[in-house]
């Protein structure tokens, strides 16, 4: 009786070539997938390095700080701005969208501060002065969680804490709000924040991708970055204000309408006439202030939040489609 020896198969040239070829293909596929995923993340976040051209410098009372994030045994820093307002002012965590770092966000942060909020704003890893390379959905969620912990230390009263996210930052804000809502539900604790504000955001990254490509492309199967806000917002256990410009050409307002439908009560939808992707807060200044005051019942030093009239900025043409992020949402300059 002969004994089977696996080496006999390996000695056959055809078997050896097929085995080696399969191994090479597998390695190339893994490397190729990794490269594709990196490119997907680059297109999703579309990080613009350096300082925004319209940045005029940091206001004197803004404090800069670095927040350590430990991931996979490695510590990296998330750069943050803390801009305190009046005593007993509500405190807000500001989560920005794709493309621009904090230097490109100052105009909107200033509006929120002049509305009466103390603002903690962060650059995700890979943006601005923060450590890291190409961001991912996982890393920005980690960064938001670390920033939230910092906000709870800066403002211990949950009744004075808010989460705000613009555009892609809206998806990050919804994820954070859902996570901390889940945690408070487990312990039957009250809501850890007074409210969530989401501006000019979307339902899922796949929905945004469909907006930019042919309907038959299976984008949901191709994307590794999901940002599934429409499912997560149903888990949010705090009041939700959703704002969107009706003339938004990058992220149509119907996405915010869908988020509003999925959100639990109490909730409010603010559609600002004449506003585009970046200027809802300026165009709808009075409406925005009224929504914040009436919906959340906010006061600052016993006075309603003040409306802000910032000067209109000179507009530039939006970036061509090839220069926008993969979800096509960040215009070239603030509005």
Can you offer a commentary on this structure?
The protein has 335 residues and is an alpha/beta fold. It folds into two domains: 33 residues; 278 residues, 3-Layer(aba) Sandwich (Rossmann fold), CATH 3.40.50.1820. The longest helix has 33 residues. The protein is 38% helix and 16% strand. An eight-stranded mixed β-sheet has the order 1-2-4-3-5-6-7-8, sandwiched between helices.
List keywords for this structure.
335 residues; alpha/beta; Rossmann fold; 2 domains; eight-stranded mixed sheet; 38% helix; globular; disordered C terminus
Compact overview of the structure:
By secondary structure, this protein is α/β, with parallel strands linked by helices. Helix content is 38%, strand content 16%.
